[in-house]
């Protein structure tokens, strides 16, 4: 059972909306008026309640996108390009419910993209360095982090925050 309760993004102009990626009012994935107004308010704070320690907040100098990983009960936070605390490509971190940093998420050194697939032959691939982490969401109860490469491409890959290990790829897409 999670110790994160009522986790919300708080914009600099005072609007708040849920961190839960499945919520209608989530500013990154929802389409409600509240979601849009919170997103336009330059998100830099995440706030939640804990049973034992009351209200907690994390403040950042840049916009953030986050999700609470159900397997580890850690808050996974991806920070925008301008953040000075967590610089890209390692612009993500995992936090405990008491607000303490658990670990900085180190991206994989490279992603691999298929550039040619001829019938009867092994695919030809090229490796590209990860430029930044772009998003975090939950899929089937697992954390999925978007890894930016080649300026406009994103590889979504599963991440296990307990073992601090990158797992299989979910998809690659062009922005």
Q: What this model shows, in words?
A:
- It comes from Massilia solisilvae.
- This is Pyridoxamine 5'-phosphate oxidase family protein.
- This protein has 175 residues and is mostly beta strands.
- The chain has one domain.
- It is 4% helix and 52% strand.
- The strands form four sheets. A four-stranded antiparallel β-sheet has the order 2-1-3-4. The protein has a four-stranded antiparallel β-sheet with strand order 5-6-7-8, with no helix packed on it.
- Strand 5 (64-69) and strand 6 form a beta hairpin.
- The N and C termini lie far apart (36 Å).
Structure keywords:
single chain; 175 residues; mainly beta; four-stranded antiparallel sheet; 1 helix; globular; Pyridoxamine 5'-phosphate oxidase family protein
List the helices and strands and how they pair.
Blueprint: E1 5-11, E2 16-18, H1 33-39, E3 43-50, E4 54-59, E5 64-69, E6 74-79, E7 92-95, E8 101-104, E9 110-116, E10 124-129, E11 132-139, E12 142-149, E13 153-160, E14 165-174
Antiparallel strand pairs: 1-2, 1-3, 3-4, 5-6, 6-7, 7-8, 9-10, 11-12, 12-13, 13-14
Organism: Massilia solisilvae
Protein name: Pyridoxamine 5'-phosphate oxidase family protein
Concise structural overview:
With 175 residues, this protein is mainly beta.
The largest β sheet comes out as: 4 strands, antiparallel
Cα separation of the termini = 36 Å
Order of strands across the main sheet: 2-1-3-4
- Mean pLDDT score, rounded? 91
What radius of gyration results from the CA coordinates?
17 Å
- Stretches with pLDDT under 50, minimum 5 residues: none
Q: Identify the overall geometry.
A: globular
Number of strands: 14
């Amino acid at each position: 059972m999670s110790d994160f309760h009522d986790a919300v993004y708080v914009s600099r102009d005072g609007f708040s909306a849920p961190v839960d990626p499945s919520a209608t009012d989530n500013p990154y994935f929802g389409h409600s008026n509240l979601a849009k107004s919170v997103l336009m308010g330059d998100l830099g704070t995440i706030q939640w309640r804990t049973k034992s320690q009351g209200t907690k907040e994390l403040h950042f100098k840049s916009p953030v996108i986050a999700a609470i990983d159900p397997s580890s009960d850690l808050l996974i936070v991806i920070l925008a390009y301008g953040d000075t605390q967590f610089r890209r490509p390692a612009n993500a971190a995992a936090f405990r419910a008491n607000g303490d940093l658990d670990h900085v998420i180190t991206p994989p050194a490279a992603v691999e993209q298929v550039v040619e697939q001829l019938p009867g032959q092994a695919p030809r691939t090229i490796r590209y360095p990860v430029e930044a982490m772009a998003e975090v969401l939950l899929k089937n109860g697992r954390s999925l982090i978007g890894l930016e490469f080649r300026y406009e491409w994103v590889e979504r890959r599963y991440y296990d925050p307990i073992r601090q290990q990158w797992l299989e790829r979910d998809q690659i897409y062009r922005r």
